[in-house]
């Protein structure tokens, strides 16, 4: 009973946050000087044409109705028409998502696998040579801007070694080529994330190692490996998962930059190009999409706690 | 099986610091089926010795010497060899039942993994064995509890699980490091009884580490006294505890608050206000505090109809086990929590019906002392700022130089020096910190001080000094104390009047002497019987094996 | 009970203070360069000289020249000033707002806390670059846009850090003692909570300035931060992409500048944390 109540409460708070984020986006974009109709038609358009366009776009309605129009559209997949691309925004986003989502997932996977493994290795035997090397690398890795690292990767692997192309995306018709095109961007995106995870995992492992129950486990005569993985790492995952959730926001921000570095037709690049075109309808929806992704990931992290720490199921 | 311990030193090698010796030469033997207690205050090195025996010391601490188990020196074994000894030949039980179990692992699995490590059997067989063990250590409904998580059990049950884990692979030696310190006295008695039975049943030898002389007296045939890493004396327990040869042991025993032997000369009530002898300083009437869930259903009655009156200039003791509601009662008397019903009258004024401004004025008459001397002092304030804090309320409080003088006088009255005013809390020991907290409580000359477990976190010798200080303040300043503790001995030592609390109710009240010497209620008798005492001899099924050793 | 071992951290090895020393050294150098750049640079960072364009490091100046023949090292110096001033301003405002909200949440609990934390969640849902794009759509790119979006992004971080620390402090008996002495929530916050969380907040602020410099570089890369001709590390990187094969130093130098600056701030943050809380030793 209580556990379902917990899920229910988390879900309610998830939806509420999502709603609040959409209101914030709406308010910010609605405060804009000038309006979408003028931007669409250009400044030379006649007043009555603009007025007609305004009513066609629903811009003469009161604010709450305009908001409901937008959100109602989001639910049925009708996000309006892009001013600069002259195509439905929903199609635009779906198409771009096919690049951004795999990129984000690849980067996250690389960061988690590399970061957590190295963090456990370093934290298991602190102050030994391996730990010192890993910690130093992580310290530097955190300070590396992901998009600069992307440029360096291009410099090395494209310009010098010619192993990868410097950017662009061939589309998913050839999955191998598509993955290859996403490889360097994903690595660039993953580096600082992995470095953060190394540090968090390392210190969580060191903290848990000092707990009484680890001593109990050792007093049972368990092997070092079993104590480490079954008792230490298992309990060190809570802070690690927390950070994965928090870092996702950086990953999204990094994606905007890295897509630009590698000229990938993803959502981040779409947002950036729409800004240059002042294509507000696209910006509004992409912003909602990004915010939604961050909120959703943190919602999943919340649920993961319930699984990771049995104490939270009851409390 | 024989265990011969001959440790020449345990040293801490800190980075860029001189090596510190934590334990000096100490040696003892533990025969098959024998029970040995290691006694000492905090910092005596008693836990270090037990950890050293299993090679569990932190990496910067090294032990030298020999720990011979059947002729093999554990201190020279490799980690891999030690893993075959830990659990299988020597089992260990730790102090904190809360933190000693893995919070994210089901308790059955925590027992099973030890069995499977040392014995070849199937998981199903090991699970069956774990079930038997849980039943043996007295977990009710054991079959369902196998899949419970530690947080779903009470402290006593968790410690029973800890014992099941330790005995699961069938070790010949059991090391118990303060296994009952975190438990209530009645639970402690049950756990000690269980330990005693298991030792006899399985023919194990027991090495018990404790600061509590009573616990040692009840379960160990021999005992060894340590002080600051130095061996003091060793011998048969009754001999050591009743006729100590060494000065340190004598002091340790003298500091032990003992039932039936009170330091206290009862105070004369000083209530004469308004010529009415009937107006008490504090009068609590039919107090109730309920906790409800979101639907308004009562889930717990923390305080269930408590009434008592306290005369000015007395110490009123409230004793009870954890969860009995004594701390809730303290919070309500302090006005920090509101009762569901009932009154708290302070000098005839109901503190919950006065206006907020009036309450502020009344508050000046109240102060509080807390259990944890670490957390009760702000580390970023000077002692002077800490001690002067209650004057914040008082518009007539002295300022500037007068205030400094008042602070320094107050510090002196609790046995500290006036120079201490400019220092910070971390420069003081636990006992001194508690003195600072007491200085803060008395500086505004309150009439009542609520003391919630004020000596529980202190070592015995320090505890006795603080208790003496509290009685001294009562006599010198006429301040009354509402003294809350789980320890019968402490309450008897210090109280004029007592209330024995159980599940939110007083089961027995009266003058301290009467309650402790002629207990009427069954619960009081049970508490008294469970209290470990140094003059009681071996209990819990322990029979002396080697009286001549 | 491991009292002898765990109770007094001071007995244990003090972690070597290399972090702190290196952090202070690098950060002081960064601040010094940023200040000096406003009065003096080796060459004019804005003077174009097509004749000496795309010169390699040491062939012209310490870090070579860019496509317009501007001295890269001088641009980096002034870029440090821009980046650091934006990061410091933004983190300062984010910290003040975040700590205020976080300590209020911890003091009030209940509904107020819930509302504050949900607000923090909502702000947190907008990665700095996304909010920068929105703010830029509103008021155009520039220094103010960068400061607003970086500050907004810092707010929820400080709300969480300060609320967590404040709750821990408030659960301690000395806050109860203050309450018994008649102090209200506000006084307890100013007298006991703020002094005791200051260390944790300062540590977070140091790291946050480093993060802010990375984000500022990202904004500069997209042209959302200071407009030309003011030098910006991010924009230098964006311009360098065109000449990646001919003049790789144009891309390497600004990145190294960011790397060293952020590394210095992170080392300083780690060093400060070791100083305030010796138990969480984390020497690299």
Keywords for this structure?
heterotrimer, A: 315 residues, mainly alpha, B: 549 residues, alpha/beta, 19 helices, 21 strands
Q: Could you please describe the fold and organization of this structure?
A:
The complex is a heterotrimer of chains A (315), B (549) and C (284). Chain A is mainly α. Chain A has 13 helices and no strands. Chain A has helices at residues 2-30, 36-41, 47-57, 63-76, 89-124, 129-143, 146-160, 175-209, 212-219, 224-261, 267-277, 280-308, 310-314. Chain A starts with a helix and ends with a helix. The mean pLDDT of chain A is 86. Chain B is of the alpha/beta class. Helix content of chain B is 34%, strand content 24%. Chain B is built from 19 helices and 21 strands. Chain B has helices at 46-53, 79-85, 107-118, 123-136, 142-145, 155-167, 185-202, 213-219, 237-242, 247-255, 326-333, 356-363, 383-388, 400-413, 430-442, 460-477, 488-494, 512-517, 522-530; strands at 2-12, 20-23, 26-31, 35-39, 61-69, 72-73, 90-93, 173-177, 205-210, 222-227, 230-236, 282-292, 298-310, 315-319, 341-346, 349-350, 366-369, 448-452, 480-485, 497-502, 505-511. In chain B, the strands form four sheets. In chain B, strands 7-8-9-4-10-11 form a six-stranded mixed beta sheet, sandwiched between helices. The longest helix of chain B has 18 residues, at 185-202. Chain B is globular and about 75 Å long. The radius of gyration of chain C is 22 Å and the shape is elongated. The two termini of chain C are 30 Å apart. The relative contact order of chain C is 0.16. The chains are: A mainly alpha (315), B alpha/beta (549), C mainly alpha (284). Chains B and C meet through helix 1 and strand 17 of B and helix 1, helix 7 and helix 8 of C.
């Amino acid at each position: 009973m209580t556990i379902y109540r917990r899920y229910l409460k988390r879900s309610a708070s998830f939806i509420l946050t999502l709603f609040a984020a959409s209101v914030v986006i709406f308010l910010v974009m609605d405060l804009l000087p000038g309006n979408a109709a003028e931007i669409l038609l250009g400044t030379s358009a006649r007043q009555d044409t603009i007025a007609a366009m305004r009513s066609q776009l629903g811009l003469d309605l009161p604010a709450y109705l305009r908001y409901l129009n937008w959100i109602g559209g989001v639910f049925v997949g009708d996000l309006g028409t892009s001013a600069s691309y002259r195509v439905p925004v929903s199609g635009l986003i779906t198409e771009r998502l096919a690049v951004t989502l795999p990129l984000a997932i690849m980067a996250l996977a690389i960061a988690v696998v590399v970061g957590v493994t190295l963090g456990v290795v370093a934290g298991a035997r602190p102050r030994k040579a391996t730990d010192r090397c890993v910690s130093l690398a992580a310290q530097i890795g955190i300070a590396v801007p992901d998009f600069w690292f992307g440029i360096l990767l291009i410099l090395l692997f494209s310009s010098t070694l010619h192993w990868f192309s410097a950017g662009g995306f061939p589309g998913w018709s050839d999955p191998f080529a598509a993955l290859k095109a996403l490889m360097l961007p994903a690595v660039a995106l993953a580096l600082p994330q992995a470095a953060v995870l190394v540090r968090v995992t390392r210190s969580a492992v060191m903290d848990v190692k000092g707990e009484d129950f680890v001593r109990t486990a050792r007093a049972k005569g368990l092997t070092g490996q079993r104590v480490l993985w079954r008792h230490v790492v298992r309990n060190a995952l809570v802070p690690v998962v927390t950070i994965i959730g928090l870092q996702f926001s950086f990953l999204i921000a990094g994606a905007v930059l890295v897509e630009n570095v590698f000229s990938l037709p993803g959502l981040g690049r779409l947002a950036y190009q729409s800004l240059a075109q002042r294509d507000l309808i696209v910006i509004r929806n992409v912003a909602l999409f990004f915010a939604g992704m961050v909120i959703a990931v943190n919602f999943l992290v919340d649920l993961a706690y319930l699984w990771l720490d049995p104490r939270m199921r009851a409390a | 099986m024989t265990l011969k311990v001959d440790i020449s030193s345990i040293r801490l090698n800190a980075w860029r610091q001189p090596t510190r010796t934590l334990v000096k030469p100490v040696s003892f033997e533990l025969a098959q089926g024998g029970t040995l207690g290691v006694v000492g205050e905090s910092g005596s090195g008693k836990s270090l010795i037990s950890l050293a025996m299993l090679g569990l010391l932190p990496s910067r601490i090294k032990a030298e010497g020999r720990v011979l188990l059947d002729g093999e020196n554990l201190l020279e074994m490799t980690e891999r060899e030690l893993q075959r000894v830990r659990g299988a030949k020597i089992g260990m039980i730790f102090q904190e039942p809360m933190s000693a179990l893995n919070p994210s692992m089901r308790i059955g699995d925590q027992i099973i993994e030890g069995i499977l490590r040392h014995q070849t059997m199937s998981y199903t067989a090991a699970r069956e064995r774990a079930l038997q063990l849980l039943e043996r250590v007295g977990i009710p409904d054991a079959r369902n509890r196998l899949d419970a998580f530690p947080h779903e059990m009470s402290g006593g049950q968790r410690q029973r699980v800890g014992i099941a884990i330790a005995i699961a692979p069938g070790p010949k030696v059991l090391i118990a490091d303060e296994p009952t310190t975190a438990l209530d006295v009645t639970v402690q008695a049950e756990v000690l009884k269980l330990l005693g039975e298991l030792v006899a049943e399985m023919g194990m030898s027991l090495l018990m580490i404790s600061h509590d002389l009573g616990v040692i007296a009840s379960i160990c045939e021999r005992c060894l006294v340590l002080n600051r890493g130095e061996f003091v004396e060793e011998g048969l327990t009754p001999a050591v505890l009743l006729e100590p040869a060494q000065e340190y042991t004598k002091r340790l025993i003298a500091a032990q608050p003992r039932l039936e032997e009170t330091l206290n000369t009862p105070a004369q009530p000083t209530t004469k206000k308004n010529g009415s002898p009937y107006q008490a300083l504090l009068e609590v009437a039919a107090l109730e505090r309920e906790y409800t869930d979101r639907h308004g259903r009562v889930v717990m009655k923390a305080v269930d109809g408590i009434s008592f009156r306290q005369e000015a200039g007395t110490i009123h003791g409230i004793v009870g086990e954890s969860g009995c509601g004594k701390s809730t009662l303290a919070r309500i008397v302090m006005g920090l929590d509101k009762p569901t019903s009932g009154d708290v009258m302070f000098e005839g004024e109901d503190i919950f019906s006065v206006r907020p401004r009036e309450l502020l004025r009344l508050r000046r008459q109240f102060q509080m002392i807390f259990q944890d001397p670490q957390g009760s002092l702000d580390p970023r304030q000077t002692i002077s700022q800490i001690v002067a804090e209650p004057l914040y309320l008082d518009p007539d409080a002295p300022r500037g130089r007068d205030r400094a003088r008042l602070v320094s006088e107050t510090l002196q009255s609790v046995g500290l020096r006036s120079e201490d005013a400019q220092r910070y809390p971390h420069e003081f020991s636990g006992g001194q910190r508690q003195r600072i907290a007491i200085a803060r409580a008395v500086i505004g000359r309150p009439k009542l001080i609520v003391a919630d477990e004020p000596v529980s976190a202190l070592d015995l010798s320090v505890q006795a000094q603080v208790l003496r200080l509290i009685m001294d303040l009562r006599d010198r300043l006429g301040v009354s104390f509402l003294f809350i503790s789980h320890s019968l001995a402490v309450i008897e030592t210090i109280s004029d009047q007592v209330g024995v609390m159980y599940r939110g109710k007083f089961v027995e009240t009266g003058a301290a002497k009467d309650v402790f010497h002629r207990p009427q209620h069954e619960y009081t008798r049970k508490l008294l019987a469970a209290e470990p005492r140094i003059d009681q001899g071996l209990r819990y099924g322990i029979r002396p094996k080697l009286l001549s050793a | 009970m491991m009292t002898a071992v765990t109770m007094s951290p001071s007995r244990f090895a003090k972690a070597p203070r290399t972090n702190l020393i290196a952090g202070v050294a690098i950060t002081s150098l960064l601040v010094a360069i940023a200040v000096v750049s406003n009065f003096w640079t080796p060459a004019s960072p804005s003077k174009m000289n097509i004749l000496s364009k795309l010169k390699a490091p040491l062939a012209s100046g310490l870090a070579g020249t860019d496509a317009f023949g501007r001295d890269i090292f001088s641009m980096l110096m002034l870029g440090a000033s821009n980046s650091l001033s934006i990061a410091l301003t933004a983190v300062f405002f984010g910290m003040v707002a975040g700590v205020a909200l976080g300590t209020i949440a911890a003091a009030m609990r209940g509904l107020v806390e819930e509302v504050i934390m949900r607000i923090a969640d909502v702000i947190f849902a907008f990665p700095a670059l996304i909010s920068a794009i929105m703010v830029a759509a509103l008021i155009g790119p520039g220094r103010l846009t960068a400061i607003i979006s970086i500050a907004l992004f810092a707010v929820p971080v400080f709300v969480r850090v300060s609320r967590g620390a404040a709750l821990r402090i408030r659960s301690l008996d000395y806050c109860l003692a203050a309450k018994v002495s008649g102090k209200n929530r506000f006084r307890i916050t100013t007298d006991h909570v703020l002094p005791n969380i200051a260390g944790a907040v300062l540590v977070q602020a140091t790291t946050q300035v480093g993060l802010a410099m990375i984000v500022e570089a990202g904004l500069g890369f997209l042209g959302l931060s200071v407009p030309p001709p003011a030098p910006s590390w991010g924009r230098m990187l964006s311009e360098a992409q065109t000449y990646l094969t001919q003049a790789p130093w144009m891309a390497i130098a600004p990145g190294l500048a960011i790397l060293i600056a952020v590394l210095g701030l992170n080392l300083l943050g780690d060093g400060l944390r070791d100083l305030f809380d010796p138990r969480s030793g984390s020497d690299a």
